[in-house]
Amino acid sequence: MMPYPVPGDFRVPYDDLHVVARNLVRPECVLAFDDGSLIAAHGSGGYSLVSSTGDVTHYVERTGGDRRYVPNGIALAPDGRVLFADLGSRYGGIFSIDRQGGLATVVDAIDGVALPPSNFVMVDEHDLLWLTVSTRNVPRSRSWNHKVRDGFIAVIGRNDSRILADDLGYTNEIAFTADRRWVYVNETYAQRISRFPLNGTADQPQLGPRETVAQLYGADLPDGLAFDSHGGLWVTCIASNKVLLVRPDGDVQTVVDDGDPVHIERITKGVRDGTLEHADMQTPGNSRLGNVSSIAFGGPDMCTAYLGCLLDDCIRSFRSPVPGLPLPHRNRRIR
């Protein structure tokens, strides 16, 4: 086996981060495409398109109803529909939105049970829709601790909808290994990165027993994740405002760190004691990263890492020493 090529001391200072686009609204999730464009979640009910030249266009729902949609994870389906996971205050689900702001429900229930606020969505190369729900608790803050384990991973096929893994500690983003043998998942408030063997068939997947890949501590709350082409897993952490790299041998190194020590101490105690409240997570303290929440590899050589966030108005980027693993949506186009 060739040695992993990222140096163990590789770090990116905050001042080396490049601002790619501004005037965004809660760009929690970022997707990168092979034409140089990006799309990001728009917290007011839609998505933002960033062209290869940096121009920003917003597409926001215009249904005029009483429900307030909060796009969290976003995806681009093979047919060009932009999808988002709705992290609303009480209800969730997966919805599509067109360029005129029209919404359509993709899925809002599994086995007849309405989906709680939903975190993440992706459509794989086999046209299966994968989604995560962080918790069944309303409000979500009841699960911002080490004890509650009621999140799940589900898959939506042509003929059925199934929960594949349950009892997770605040399920967040998922990612597949290049050989599709494993599904990795961030469990944010359990503070761990887990993986499941991917079994079954392409159209009827199953997940085997959970394994812990890395246990995190302090205020490292894993949110976004992406593989590079050499098997390294890059992870964003809200609260501590770090980008971590889980090397193929399991070692964890810090690549970006812009945490506020006072805020980190407060969040660490709150997670441990189960006393976190909504307001505690609505500030990054004095961090300039705005609760970094997403990482996506793009650019012509796949060596540009784009960072989304919860509490700032911009997407930042840095250059990686290795290319990211291309994802199925990379060559798709918005309808």
TrEMBL record:
Residues 103-256 form the SMP-30/Gluconolactonase/LRE-like region domain. GO terms for molecular function: hydrolase activity. Keywords: Hydrolase. Pfam families: SGL (PF08450). SUPFAM superfamilies: Calcium-dependent phosphotriesterase (SSF63829). Signal peptide: none annotated. PANTHER family: LACTONASE DRP35, LIPOPROTEIN-RELATED. This is Gluconolactonase. The lineage of its organism: Bacteria, Pseudomonadati, Pseudomonadota, Betaproteobacteria, Burkholderiales.
